[in-house]
């Protein structure tokens, strides 16, 4: 029996828990080993503290180590820190970016939390990259602490991620215009194992940024290698590139919904084959590409029986490509690319230019 994958918690949820713990320690002088916070679905979740320093003083620091469960998240294991100090209120003159109704809470970004520099994201240009739901979670958690401590006045919360600037280099933040660190993310507080949510949110955000910068063409690639191949053939700014991973159909529909007038689609052979066969989600976990089915598909394309016989017994999509190349049948490769292009155009309703990229990042066929 397959192991059930374990869920985890978002950076936003961890920041909210750290903020509540720090606020309680600041106002009551007591350090809790564990704090409980409300989630957007009205549930409550407890978090263990990593550290809490300065309880009872004018400024307290508390942190939670992010546990992303079994999701391959670059922020898994990162320390999410909240530093809290007392203020009279969060009114004019303070560097607050988020206020509650009574102006008692100010929220700011510290080391390792990025700043937004391009339009089109959920947060305005010039503000810390702390998304709306995490902001709401932090506010709700800190409000609970203020109510529990029964004190007047307000608090300033500064969220930081000590390793954030280094970790951000492993993300697409720079392309989205988030500089200096990570985004504090999460729409539910929960990280689902191998979740599509982060991918699709990034795809949509990339397209938002591209449109806000005035672009009408979008480049969809399945990974860095295929993206690099397209970049060698296109004179488009960085914002035009949206790495779609395996979310082919989703990305095509998003491109149409965002009002682009041209799609450039760049992928390696196995992904192109899946596109030609009208498989909307190209990750192997959504159905491995059976080599036999791929050969049958080529029969539908009208490939000659003698070539089909040459492909008998192949085990992988790569082997199909290698045999076709050895036979000098670039025309069949082009026909498969043409079928993938047709699927992309039918799905999106937009003109599509397709680029087949090899393992070295070179475009070998364009249709």
Topology of this protein?
Elements: E1 8-9, H1 11-28, E2 34-38, E3 44-48, E4 51-53, E5 59-65, E6 79-87, E7 105-109, E8 112-113, E9 115-116, H2 132-149, E10 154-160, H3 164-168, H4 173-176, E11 178-179, E12 181-182, E13 190-191, H5 197-212, E14 217-221, H6 224-231, E15 241-243, H7 248-257, E16 262-267, H8 269-276, H9 291-300, H10 305-310, H11 317-326, H12 330-348, E17 352-357, E18 363-366
Parallel strand pairs: 7-10, 8-12, 14-15, 14-16, 16-17
Antiparallel strand pairs: 1-13, 2-3, 4-5, 5-6, 6-10, 9-11, 17-18
Report on the structure:
This protein is α/β, with parallel strands linked by helices and 367 residues long. The protein has 2 domains: 8-191, CbiD-like (2-Layer Sandwich); 197-366, no CATH class. Helices cover 36% and strands 21% of the residues. The protein has 12 helices and 18 strands. The chain has helices at residues 11-28, 132-149, 164-168, 173-176, 197-212, 224-231, 248-257, 269-276, 291-300, 305-310, 317-326, 330-348; strands spanning 8-9, 34-38, 44-48, 51-53, 59-65, 79-87, 105-109, 112-113, 115-116, 154-160, 178-179, 181-182, 190-191, 217-221, 241-243, 262-267, 352-357, 363-366. It has a 5-stranded mixed beta sheet with strand order 4-5-6-10-7, covered by helices on one side. It has a 5-stranded mixed beta sheet with strand order 15-14-16-17-18, with helices on both faces. The chain has a two-stranded antiparallel ribbon with strand order 1-13. A hairpin with a 5-residue loop joins strand 2 and strand 3. Helix 1 (11-28) packs parallel to helix 2 and helix 7 (248-257) crosses helix 12. The radius of gyration is 25 Å and the shape is elongated. The model is unreliable at 92-101 (pLDDT under 50).
């Amino acid at each position: 029996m397959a192991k059930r994958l374990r869920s985890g918690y978002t950076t936003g949820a961890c920041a909210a828990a750290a903020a509540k713990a720090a606020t309680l320690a600041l106002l009551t002088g007591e350090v809790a080993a564990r704090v409980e916070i409300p989630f957007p679905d009205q549930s409550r979740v407890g978090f263990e503290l990593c550290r809490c320093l300065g309880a009872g003083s004018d400024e307290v620091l508390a942190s939670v180590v992010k546990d992303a469960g079994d999701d391959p998240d670059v922020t898994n294991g990162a320390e999410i820190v909240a530093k809290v100090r007392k203020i009279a209120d969060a009114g004019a003159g303070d560097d607050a970016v988020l206020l509650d109704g009574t102006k008692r809470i100010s929220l700011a970004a510290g080391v390792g939390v990025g700043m937004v520099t391009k339009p089109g994201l959920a947060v305005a240009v010039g503000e810390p990259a702390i998304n709306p739901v995490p902001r709401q979670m932090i506010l709700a958690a800190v409000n609970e602490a203020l109510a529990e401590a029964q004190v007047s006045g307000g608090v300033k919360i500064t969220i930081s991620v000590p390793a954030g600037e280094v970790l951000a280099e492993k993300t697409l933040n720079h392309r989205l215009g988030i500089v200096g660190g990570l985004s504090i993310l999460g729409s539910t507080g929960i990280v689902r194992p191998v979740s599509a949510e982060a991918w699709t949110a990034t795809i949509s955000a990339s397209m938002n940024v591209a449109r806000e910068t005035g672009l009408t063409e979008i480049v969809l690639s399945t990974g860095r290698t295929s993206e690099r191949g397209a970049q060698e053939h296109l004179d488009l700014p960085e914002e035009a590139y949206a790495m779609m991973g395996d979310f082919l159909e989703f990305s095509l529909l998003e491109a149409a919904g965002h009002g682009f007038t041209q799609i450039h689609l760049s992928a390696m052979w196995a992904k192109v084959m899946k596109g030609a066969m009208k498989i909307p989600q190209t990750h192997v976990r959504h159905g491995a590409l059976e080599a036999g089915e791929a050969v049958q598909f080529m029969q539908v394309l009208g490939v000659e029986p003698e070539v089909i016989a040459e492909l008998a017994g192949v085990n992988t999509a790569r082997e199909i490509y290698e045999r076709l190349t050895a036979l000098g049948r670039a025309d069949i490769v082009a026909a498969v690319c043409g079928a993938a292009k047709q699927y992309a155009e039918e799905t999106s309703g937009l003109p599509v230019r397709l680029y087949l990229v090899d393992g070295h990042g070179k475009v070998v066929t364009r249709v």
